[in-house]
Amino acid sequence: MDKTQLKLSYHYIFFHIYLSGGIVVEDLSKFIESSIDRIRNKHCSDDRLSHREDTENSAKRIIEENLGELDESQIEEIMTKINTDYYDGEEKIDRFGMTFRGSNQTKILSNDVEDLNSMFEDLYERGEIESAERWLEGLDGVGEGMVSSLLYLHDKERYNVMLTSMKKGLKEIYEDLEFSSDFEKRYEEYNEKINDLKDRFGFQPQEIDIIFTVLYDKEIFFAPSNTENLEKSVLNPVKISELDQEEITEDIPEHIPSEFYLWGVKPTDRLKDFWGKVEYQDLLLFYEKGQDTPRSFEYCARVLDKMEHEGIAKEVWGKDDDTTWGNLIILDDPLKINLPISEFLNKVEYEEGFYPQGFSRIDPRKIDIRGYERKKKG
User: Fold this and answer.
1) Separation of CA 61 from chain center
2) How far apart are CA 339 and CA 297, in angstroms?
3) In whole angstroms, what is the distance from residue 262 CA to residue 264 CA?
4) Other residues' Cβ atoms within 10 Å of the Cβ of residue 293
């Protein structure tokens, strides 16, 4: 690229090395090009992209047929259509992570339906970007993802859905980029940068969020767990039907499946702060709790969702000092990696003798791939 070189996050490169069996990074620019091709081949099939476009068009039809008179169920269906994806042979409602799911969807739908209709008219029908700030400030649950998705449906060539992973990626690519506190200015700069990359690389509107999510939206957390609790909920799925229903007094969001892998955090200020930073598709590295010097990260798992639920936590893990791990993280299938911590420490810039101490986020600045070589499998 002239002027701007597309770069990958160290997190992506580092864990691509481990989880794919190891590669030698000699020419970073070629690695980036091959990584984009690999992501497209693996994650951006024609079926997936066409399915995304079809559901976008379905959302547009619902809006256009009922504009000004949308009811709550239609608005909920529109959000579901926008958030629909297709991979692993089935339709899934997780394209934009938690933007249109669970408690956030509930908050959006709690607003006055007339106000929501006015927002749809301003953003979708008229494309009035200058009105977005008013809706961001005035409507509960409405964030950048919601307002930008309506502008995107209004004009897909000009506008893009604003996501954390995309902003994170842009800041890595354009090192001096500082987004304005004003949404209109921030969104215009965001679209200018994204559209420049779309033109240069030929990214389609339905695939660029996939590519950016894989490249840049992967925070990594140390996750301590003892063998007993690991067996209970990380290596074996929790089944809601097998829990004591009388103990589960809080409602469980409808989108939460009846069976899932699970990990939890106690509700201390420090831990809740880290828990609040966990996002969809982040990575948890599990190590044996209680060892002075844990030997390895035995498993890793991707984050699918979060919720607060003391009842489930008590049923799954019980209590410890009258508290339980009620800040829950719902996980994808765990992957056994047996990554020695000594080998991990060789490639990060933590001080000698460092070992993980509780639940915490890996500082991305610590990861260093320079000169790294690992023998390929086979």
Assistant:
1) 28
2) 5
3) 7
4) 8
| Chain segment 269-304, per-residue pLDDT in tens | 888 888 988 877 788 989 887 666 667 888 888 888
Counting as low any pLDDT under 70, the low residues of the chain are 1-35, 216-218, 249-250, 290-294, 345-353, 363-378
DSSP string, 269-291: HHHHHHHHH--TT-EEEEEETT-
Q: Which residues contact 353 (CB under 8 A, 6 or more apart)?
A: none
Cβ atoms of residues 339 and 345 within 8 Å: no
* DSSP secondary structure code for residue 350 in this structure: P
169: tokens are: 């990626």
Greatest Cα-to-Cα distance within the chain, rounded to the nearest angstrom? 63
The whole-angstrom separation of Cα 196 and Cα 337 is 38
Exposure of 276 by Cβ count < 10 A (0-12 exposed, 13-18 middle, 19+ buried)? exposed
Contact (Cβ atoms closer than 8 angstroms) between residue 188 and residue 142: no
Q: 10 near 364, Cβ under 8 Å? A: yes
Question: In angstroms, rounded to a whole number, what is the distance separating the alpha carbons of residues 79 and 98?
Answer: 11
Please give the mean pLDDT across all residues of the chain.
83
Interatomic CA distance for residues 130 and 128, integer angstroms: 5
Q: Can you give the C-alpha Rg of the chain in angstroms? A: 22
Alpha helix (H) residue ranges in the chain:
10-19, 28-43, 46-66, 72-82, 102-109, 113-120, 132-138, 144-154, 164-173, 183-201, 208-216, 227-229, 269-277, 310-317, 341-346
SS3 (DSSP) at 3: coil
First-to-last CA distance in the chain?
35
φ/ψ of 287, rounded to 5, equals -135, 160
Q: What CA–CA distance (Å, rounded) separates 145 from 149?
A: 6
Which residues in 94-109 are b (16+ Cβ under 10 Å) and which e?
bbbbbbbbeebbeebb
Model confidence, pTM: 0.63
Distances (CA, A) of 368 to 338, 344, 348, 364: 20, 10, 5, 9
Please provide residue 175's backbone torsions phi and psi, each rounded to the nearest 5 degrees.
-60, -30
Measuring CA to CA, which residue among 325, 335, 216, 327 is closest to residue 286? Answer: 335
The third-level CATH classification (topology) of the domain covering 220-361 is ph1033 like fold (3.10.590)
Give the DSSP H or E segment for 361.
strand 360-361
- What's the CA gap between 99 and 94, in Å, rounded? 9
Every domain of the chain with CATH number 3.10.590 lies at 220-361
